[in-house]
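hey so i finally got around to running the thing on that chain from the lab meeting. sorry it took forever, my laptop kept dying and i had to restart like 3 times. anyway pasting the input first so we r on the same page abt which one it is
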Amino acid sequence: MAVGVVLAAVLLVAFVLVPPVVAEGQTSFQNVAVDEAYNMTTSGNFPDLAVLDVRYQYEYDMGHLYNAVLIPYDELETRIGELEEYKNHEIIVYCRSGYRSEIACEILVEYNFTKVHNMLGGILDWIKADYPIWTTSHYVTVNVVDEEILLQIEPLLLRQTGCIPCAQNQTCPSGNEPTDIQFTVLEQEENHTVILLTYEVNGTTFGVTIARTLLWSYNELTDEINRTASLMSTEITAEDTSMEFYSLSYLVQHTEYNLTLYTTLTPLNSETYNSSFTIMNYAPAGKSEVISFEFIEFNSSVTLSQLYAVLGKVAKEIGKVYEKSEDESLMPLAQAYARMNEEAEHLSKVVEKQLTVYDLEILHNSAVLEDMICGPCGYGGDECGGGGGDEPTCTIECWIDNFLWCLGFVPDFEMACLAGCVIGAIGCEPLYPLCAGYCFAACGIIGNAIMIGCAIYALVYCCL
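ok and heres what got predicted. didnt touch it at all, straight out
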């Protein structure tokens, strides 16, 4: 009897300690925590280690582990040959949180990969453990306490909601497609323009009036740099609905770079702005190899001049992040954000001195800082470089070398853009006027007549 008990205990221990035998010719994968995965990538004990990212391209572009190979999990079987050299080497597989990587590991095992490791918790747990990733997209939270600026900088992918890729989410959800779009100039003076925008939706014609007035302008010209700024008032009236906002644009042409800043301001009353949204874009004289995107959210109210001072501070700190990365591909971004800091501080001083009447408190603020690639795309006319580029029109992803020239010589261009924003935003109700506000900011940056509010809404609030 005692011998039987002992034998049973031995068999039980053997069953617990010895893993089940898999089918002949097959292996299993091993789950590893992010700490173990990090040690594997840094210890030097696995010189032939591969790191496989099985998320989608847009997720990878927002941030990934250094030297990670991208093959989306639903493409893995058809592209399995790309990993043939790692068949008998360690492979760490990760995704966003661990679900897709497990599926990918099963596929690798099925194709007889022998040393497969599934990183539990995915890149989210990796970031939470404070391990480094390659990213050029950040989410910055700003708090101003007793005039001290407190910043929290984290990878933007932590804020990602998991919607479909941007390329698949560029149309309005309502399906009310505007047609027969026309706009007519009703008044056009040196500092004041009024247009009537008409369009048709489902057989019904609608009309929108857009009035714009120049309130202030500024110019500074030296041998190296040309700075111009303006403050516009825009009033949009559609049937019994009206919307008013201000827009401040700041354009810088330097021998080494171009910089454009555009802010929309929605007033609450005569003494306070309800909200602001700012896009600041930097483009070097040459072609950018890396595109960056930083989204900034304020938890504190600031004045207009303080807004630009804070954005300068954010740019400076973001530049330090890129500098500390010691990644050569990111080093140019450190210089780009140093320039943004200088220009934002310069604009802050100009506003404080020359725009006292409009230097009011803003309750809610958000902004985007970006270093965008320069590309050979045009507007369709020879005078603006159209016809010679690879792309027929320009999108938010494309910074146009000769945009400032075009803007100066095509006065109706921005109006056409605003018209497109209004139509798109109305078609996206109830997102209007939020859709429109972001679109107007984009118009100030790129002057793209076909850009509509929904694309910007999707870019900022969904895909990011």
